[in-house]
Amino acid sequence: MIGRVPRYIEGTEVRLTVRDRIFLDAEFFDGTRLECLEPHRLFPVTGPSRYVALIDEEGESVGVIGNLDDLMEGSKEAVMGALDEYYMIPRIERIILREDRQGLNRWEVETNHGKAEFEMADVINSIKRLYDDRVLIKDLSDNRYEIPDLGKLDARSLKFIIPDL
């Protein structure tokens, strides 16, 4: 059986409202109402405001917003807020502690959202240095962290990360 085709949303035909942080409700002007939808960018790097899928509780795409700029003002803010929450990547400002424990690499860091602790098993594949001196880190739970500018870390924090770069 072929799954249902997602509805293409051009903008003014729907009102989107926040349900709970990353979830939205959609009320179409034809009377259709969809609840508890999770927005996902289909092209997060190349098109962050275009082609946003709305995923229902079963994990099915029920709609695709062609361009966020075409949405009504309140709807656009609701979607942008949910996307910001969903794609939030804490920025590491300082590395407090890094230690090896029974094959796991444990980190304690200070981020722009407060202190965080996480573990990695494969440091080589979990830390990526990018061309613009940014560093992306992925922990065992697939959470992502970013160091926006390696050169702005304090000397102690640099000692914890430089051997792996």
Short description:
It contains three helices and twelve strands. It is of the alpha+beta class and 165 residues long.
Structural overview:
The structure is a single chain. The chain has 3 helices and 12 strands; from the N terminus they run ββββββαβββαβββα. With 165 residues, the chain is an alpha+beta fold. The strands form 3 sheets. Strands 1-6-5-4-3-2 form a 6-stranded mixed sheet, with helices on one face. A hairpin with an 8-residue loop joins strand 4 (33-41) and strand 5 (50-55). The protein is elongated.
Give the topology:
Blueprint (H helix, E strand, L loop, with lengths): L6 E3 L4 E7 L2 E6 L4 E9 L8 E6 L5 E7 L5 H14 L5 E10 L2 E8 L2 E7 L2 H4 E3 L5 E4 L5 E4 L7 H7 L4
Parallel strand pairs: 1-6
Antiparallel strand pairs: 2-3, 3-4, 4-5, 5-6, 7-8, 8-9, 10-11, 11-12
Distance between the termini: 48 Å
- What is the helix fraction of residues, given as a range? 10-25%
Q: What count of domains describes the coordinates?
A: 2
Low-confidence sequence ranges: none
General form:
elongated
Give the amount of beta strand, in percent. 35-45%
Radius of gyration: 20 Å
| Main beta-sheet strand count, sense and barrel state | 6 strands, mixed
Mean of the pLDDT scores? 91
Q: What is the count of helical runs?
A: 3
Q: Walk across the major sheet and give the strand order.
A: 1-6-5-4-3-2
Order of helices and strands: EEEEEEHEEEHEEEH
Question: How many extended strands?
Answer: 12
Estimated structural class = alpha+beta
